[in-house]
## 1
Amino acid sequence: MTNKTPKAIFLDRDGTLIRDKNYLSRPEDIEYFPDTFTALTLMQAKGYRLYVITNQSGVGRGFFPIEAVYSVHAAMDADMSAHKLEPFEGWGVCPHSPDEACTCRKPHAQLIEDFMQRDGLDAKHCWMLGDKGIDAQCGLNAGIKGAVVREKSAAADFVFFATLLEFAQTLP
Ligand SMILES: [Mg+2]
Ligand SMILES: [Zn+2]
């Protein structure tokens, strides 16, 4: 990346960047929202580094192997490039099922904290966004800002934005 700033947006995958297909595991099932790439372009134009933080319990539940997750993410990386975007700076994946009591499954903050430390990010300029309350809570647990996008019903206790683009437009 050309401008390594300490500002970052951590994004949920399913229901936020792409439509939630309920245990999606094949690249051909990826379906972006109409504003996904416009919003990501604006975020990067404003100097934010982009990361994805995703719970993929389908692995831990035995529905699909971790390699399937990687193939989906490789396809999304290629789509970023096709839209002239910088690549995601990190893919944070929790492959565990809820009963494994790991420290990486959202709303646990481990994945965000690891990237914050690795890349020297500034908590004052970082957000975690997703379509569920656990996404916003994950951000708060990591000491950064958290918000819910797209799903108003999940936003009871959190800042809410109707779309990713609306969020990107409000960023300083
Ligand atoms: Mg989601
Ligand atoms: Zn985990």
## 2
Amino acid sequence: MPLVPKHIQDLQPYKAGKPIDELRRELGLERIVKLASNENPLGVSPLAQEAIQKAIADVNRYPSPDGYALRKALADRYDVNMGNVFLGHGSEGIISLIMRTFLLDDEEAVTSAGSFITFDIQAQSRGIKLHRAPLKDYQIDLDAVAGLVNEKTKLVYLANPNNPTGTIFKVHKFLSFIQQIPKHVLVILDEAYFEFARQDPAFPDSMQYRFDNVITLRTFSKAFGLAGVRIGYGFAHENFISNLMKIKLAFEPSSLAICAGVAALDDVEFLEQTIRLNRIGKHFLYQLFDELGLRYLPSHTNFVTIVLDSEKTVNTLYDKLLHKGVIVRPLKAFGLPNCIRISTGLEEENEFFAKILKQIL
Ligand SMILES: Cc1ncc(COP(=O)(O)O)c(C=O)c1O
């Protein structure tokens, strides 16, 4: 019997976008712009910062095990019961917990290829068989996803908007998809980029279309600027939530994460600034790519993905950008070896990227 199970030995760990400090150490560059991890370039919600500073004085105490303050705030905001709200160590923490709570070893999961690889990693870490439907013209193909559901399927994972393509599936497609899925199959709708997509009437905000087998996931990591704090949340039927509550670590999430979330929810000004800056950034990138004749995927998120002719072109461009101080994200690990994802930055960061990209091309 091997000490480490084969599915763990074979696992490729998640490789995050290159950290700024690492690049500075390696190349000694003065100016570095990171447009690789879909973070909030504006910084942290000021109200959340203030709340964290105040709460630091109490970190000798354990946090409330049921995350009362933030669950209550989210329940009020979305007009649901607290029993329908769950908190986690980022939305990826909740994905991990769902895997641990609901899946038996011989049950299976379905998702789309070219999507958020954390789900694939979590499935593999549990030794769960995962079926992936190919993308159709860089969009999630819901008919193909539904076609992969079989009698062993317990879980379907869909990111909408999708990372790394930035695309959405629309309301009518979602409604016909959900009719095809048996009621005992759990559907995770990961809406990490909800705040950037919700203005589009074609976007199916899953809180408007409640189904008992759907778990909605959202996060404070993107639009609220709290990626480093690790706080995500989910909405679902209370039967799912009560079982997730049994399995979660007793004091997850931390007290700083809970109070940062409560304050960030009320920071309407920061959220509006973030969305405005992102809109400007996306249009700047679209114009840049049009000017340079680069194909891009119109995005409902805080990043834009470009499609190049080959993996070799991707690697060359990635390296050249890196050597000039711009970190972007090549998408081989996401199953899109001919694509690069660029997060929107501050206006001067986008301009720096444009200047370097033009020099290179
Ligand atoms: C689709 C999707 N879901 C979840 C996450 C992770 O969010 P969190 O920081 O809340 O774990 C990301 C982050 O990139 C994402 O793109």
